[in-house]
Prior knowledge:
Oligomer: single chain
Keywords: DNA-binding, Homeobox, Nucleus
Protein name: Homeobox domain-containing protein
Order of helices and strands: HHHHH
DNA-binding region: 16-75
GO molecular function: DNA binding; DNA-binding transcription factor activity, RNA polymerase II-specific
GO cellular component, one term: nucleus
CATH superfamily: Homeodomain-like
CATH architecture: Orthogonal Bundle
Amino acid sequence: MRIRKFKSHEEFAVRRKRVRTVFTAGQLQELERHFRLNKYAHGSTRDKLAQDLNLTQKQVKIWFKNRRMKFRKELSSLNNRGPPEEHITEVTLEEVFNMEDVFKDSN
């Protein structure tokens, strides 16, 4: 492993900063559409999606990863509503889509 020495703390900080990706409304709409169909984007699907949206494969991969985490939090919050005996144990795909609409409306 190679260790890089920096001249100053500022040089270190500047090199470590990463620009945050800002997705357009159209990109988000298309990513969400694909997410509803499949929670994972693999190989050629991810490549084509990235190419169509003018994004890198890594940006698409990270977006799906972050979206799955958001989805899990949404499911978890639904499970934690009400008494324990009313917790959701199994969710159908149709219910998931309805849940996503509820969360969009509540934000």
